[in-house]
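Entry 14. Two folds queued back to back today. First construct below, sequence then structure tokens.
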Amino acid sequence: MTDLIQARSSSKRDRLVRAACSLFHQRGVGHTSLADIAKTADVQIGNVYYYFKTKDDIIRAVIDSHADHLRAGLKSLDRHRSPAARLTAFVREVVKTGPDTARYGCPHGTLCSELGRRDDDLTGAASVLMGIRLDWARAQFQAMGRTDADDLAYTLVAQIQGAALLANTFRDPAVLVGQTRRLQRWIKDLAGLE
């Protein structure tokens, strides 16, 4: 019986976090209330406070959820044999988000940008999302033997975030397609594959 209760509780909490992830991406943190999250998750508003005492608590849970998914996604790229193949696959994943990115922007970039305007610990908490990407990309470039791996990692992440911003600004997923092709050629050049 206790396992069943915990499973149901976990399910409600997970639904709340998934709803918050979606709403924060589509509307932004500032335009999303706990009541909005409860309604989207189909959970009574009182239950929200059982899991999250404040809106900041659910924001932290959203950041943690994004970080977990990001780490898992990057880990899945290990199936590619070479660092260049892993980097290329990483860039290709960006295109898959094209329509959503064109409509709402990058979920991580917009969250970092919005929370970056605050003057509290959530600014630093959100920066982990970019840090995970940078650390992973740096490791790939180092595995390629690049002594400028740090600079290359920043360039890659900045290019992806810039492409996401432009795709969102112009509501055009084709911007992502064009920029990711350019990045794929750049990675091949850096690896000496062309």
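Second construct, same run, same settings:
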Amino acid sequence: MALLEDQAAVRDPELVPIRHARMRASPFAFFRGAALIMAADLATTRDSGLVVQLCGDAHLSNFGLFASAERRLVFDINDFDETLPGPFEWDVKRLVASVEVAGRHRGFGDRDRRDLRLSAARGYREQMLASAEASVLDAWYDTLSAERVQEWLRRERNADRAGKRQVNGFDEIVAKARSKDRMSAISKLVAFEHDRMRIIADPPLVVPVEDFVAGAETETAELMREALASYRSTLPAGRHPLAEYTYVHMARRVSGVGSVGIRSWIMLLRGRDDTDPLLLQAKEAQASVLERFLGASEYASHGERVVRGQRMMQASGDIFLGWHRGAADAAGDRRDFHLRQLRDWKGSFDPERMVPHGAELFARLCGATLARAHARSGDRVAIAAYLGASRTFDEAVAEFAESYADQTDRDFGAFERALDVGRLSSADGA
């Protein structure tokens, strides 16, 4: 609980109760918000000494579909707030533990959950072995497109390792992801007020900037023009689409479970005219939860830390991914931010609806995806040699994950008691 109190001290105090309320929903929701707690636990364990660029929060819900710069739908890790170099096992253990915690939440039996854990670990190990055998460029360019996943699922079905429900289910996720483009986000978040585009208020989750300080809109517009120019310098060199957009409006927006309380803004930009809008997300980048155990980042800006880590781990990313160091506030503090498109196709696997067989395939896919990311930044040949061709590693990580899920249950109980006695604050209806 002391670790959660430490985090609350550096987050927006108005939003911390919402974060705690969301974490209280289930042990899995708590696990999603407890990356710092698990990092503290992992720091007490031994590791191989084989270092990669860690995601830092590689749980089941941080994998999904999104649009690549080449306008293809790809499956990859999609959250890098905690990224930092560290032992490859830390990411693997967090992923496999999340599979076990989610399986318990869904009421799966012991055997089904064991199959899930082994599937995730096996997916990682087998993909790392394949990456070690690949050529340098093949390993670096290895991207898992939605089409490749669909082909894999159909092969699994032909081999009786996947059913029609799993194949059709992924096809539905792909179709839904293609419908979740930037214009669908704009239709939900933006409206016209007095013939001007404005982000719709939905407090406390979406709060326009002018609602914080009366009359601040004009001053904010000037600051944002300067901020966008600074951010532009971190994007790929040469002509960039951002140059054709102008600032219109911005609002604070509450993000997912782990990020609630981190200052996050959405910015509305205008292209050729009002029919050509763009939404960017500017999310505060604080120190990674891993830094107190693995050492400080090499980058002065945590926004740059996030972006550099993401660019290394993803084979293809958002062309709007960049960073910015904010202006000093009244206390003289400057905040770091990383920016990206708010939504550009998005698809995810819902743990609340998963069934054992589909979850097993998804766990294997996540394990393989994590291995691809680690293979780009670490010594994939050394890691593959360490993992070996037997199931020893799979069994060891699966056993750890089961024990860690027990620990998570105990931590969740302590968390609920801390909320009940008022040690930690919570908001109803969050």
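Quick look at the second one. The chain is about 50% helix and 15% strand. The chain has two domains: 2-144+351-420, 182-341.
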